[in-house]
């Protein structure tokens, strides 16, 4: 008797093969990106630069934040000369840095340039690309870059933390971008874009180490929601090593120490307090923002569920998306116009900005809910 022939198609080989192929793809992607992550944080290859803020004063003089530049040990051990060459917007400049023993770049033992030196950089208003390079005998030229922002003495700044504030999680926010996972808080890009459009400058602040500058900068550029990206702005990180930054934030749990020092440094570049509002996710952020003079009515904290609170109010609960609906009330537009060549700068004619009380915030929240109920 002939055995029964099974004429049903055999699919059981296809599914395992598909799963294995898919798994191999993701595993390969994780390994590839983890290598990039390791190279970013490996102290032997630690290279990075922190963005610089230059502020034009009323008298046309210039002040700047520190130039923090660091080259990994493997990139500078055999440097022909202890000289760091600099290009601004693709053009070499006559100012050079000296390379320290630990790979840090210094302007003859200083981290800043004076007004005359800053003027020689021929910076344009807004972002300017700076490239720092060191030539080694066997590895050629090692480069790192940062952005130098030229701002005005009367600009208003909104400060935003990154991990847990722009990302949904402190830790996962650092790792998931490497596997292509979108882990940004819902509505953060549209809200920040609207605030930016109203005339405010953005400053991104993180206790991450300088060696993660490229990684962090690339992540901020990658965030895109509702066809808009995060607004451009300087990225300020810790100039210390990864281990020191990790110990301060995770072990000591005192990232506000660095953040306060960093914000105070920026504050000194302006004749009056430039900080208008701050976004964070921890009490440490609140502490830092309050210390540098940001009103509690403009300190916003968000949790991993996307619930946004104002520090002064225990009843106000919102979200980035809801705050976008009342952005003109919370962040009044700043009118601008170009003046005569006598000043050759942008002078801002500002409307008076008033702090909102907890009752005002609750009223705004109520109006939001009523408006949404009517549209349903």
List the keywords:
2 domains; alpha+beta; 7-stranded mixed β-sheet; Immunoglobulin-like; 21 strands; phosphatidate phosphatase activity; 25% strand; 376 residues
Structural class: alpha+beta
Radius of gyration: 24 Å
Q: What distance separates the N and C termini?
A: 71 Å
* Beta-strand residue percentage: 25-35%
- Can you give the mean pLDDT? 78
Please tally the β strands and state the result.
21
Percentage of residues assigned to helices: 25-40%
User: How many domains, as an integer?
Assistant: 2
Query: What about the largest sheet?
Result: 8 strands, mixed
Extract low-pLDDT stretches: 11-15, 37-44, 172-181, 241-253, 337-353
CATH fold label of the largest domain: Rossmann fold
CATH architecture of the largest domain: 3-Layer(aba) Sandwich
Number of helices: 12
CATH class of the largest domain: Alpha Beta
Give structural notes.
The protein is α+β, with helices and mostly antiparallel strands and 376 residues long. The protein is built from twelve helices and 21 strands. The termini are far apart. Helices cover 32% and strands 25% of the residues. The strands form five sheets. Strands 2, 3, 5, 6, 7, 8, 9 and 10 form an eight-stranded mixed beta sheet that branches. Strands 15-12-11-16-17-18-19 form a seven-stranded mixed beta sheet, sandwiched between helices. Strand 9 (126-136) and strand 10 (140-152) form a beta hairpin.
């Amino acid at each position: 008797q002939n055995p029964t022939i099974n004429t049903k198609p055999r699919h059981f080989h296809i599914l395992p093969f598909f799963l294995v192929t898919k798994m191999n793809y993701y595993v390969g992607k994780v390994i590839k990106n983890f290598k990039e992550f390791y190279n970013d944080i490996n102290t032997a290859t630690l290279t990075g630069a922190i963005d610089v803020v230059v502020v034009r004063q009323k008298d046309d003089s210039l002040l700047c934040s520190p130039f923090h530049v660091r080259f990994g040990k493997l990139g500078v051990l055999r440097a022909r000369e202890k000289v760091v060459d600099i290009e601004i917007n693709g053009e070499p400049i006559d100012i050079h840095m000296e390379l320290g023993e630990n790979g840090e770049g210094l302007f003859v033992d200083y981290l800043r340039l004076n007004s005359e030196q800053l003027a020689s950089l021929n910076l344009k208003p807004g972002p300017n690309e700076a490239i720092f390079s060191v030539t080694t005998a066997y590895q050629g030229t090692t480069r790192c870059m940062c952005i130098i922002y030229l701002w005005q003495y009367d600009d208003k700044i909104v400060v935003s933390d990154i991990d847990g504030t722009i990302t949904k999680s402190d830790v996962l926010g650092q790792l998931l971008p490497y596997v292509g996972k979108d882990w940004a808080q819902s509505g953060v890009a549209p809200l920040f874009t609207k605030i930016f459009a109203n005339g405010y400058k953005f400053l991104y602040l993180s206790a991450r180490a300088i060696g993660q500058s490229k990684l962090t900068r690339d992540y901020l550029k990658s965030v895109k929601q509702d066809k808009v990206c995060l607004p451009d702005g300087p990225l300020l990180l810790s100039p210390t090593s990864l281990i020191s930054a990790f110990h301060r934030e995770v072990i000591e749990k005192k990232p506000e120490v660095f953040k306060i020092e960093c914000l105070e440094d920026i504050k000194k570049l302006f004749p009056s307090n430039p900080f208008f509002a701050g976004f964070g996710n921890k009490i440490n952020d609140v502490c830092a923002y309050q210390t540098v003079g940001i009103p509690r009515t403009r300190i916003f904290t968000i949790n991993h569920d996307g619930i946004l609170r104002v520090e002064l109010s225990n009843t106000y609960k919102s979200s980035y998306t809801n705050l976008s609906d009342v952005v003109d009330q919370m962040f009044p537009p700043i009118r601008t116009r170009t003046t005569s060549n006598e000043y050759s700068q942008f002078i801002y004619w500002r409307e008076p900005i008033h702090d909102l009380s907890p009752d005002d915030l609750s009223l705004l929240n109520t109006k939001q809910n009523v408006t949404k109920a009517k549209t349903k």
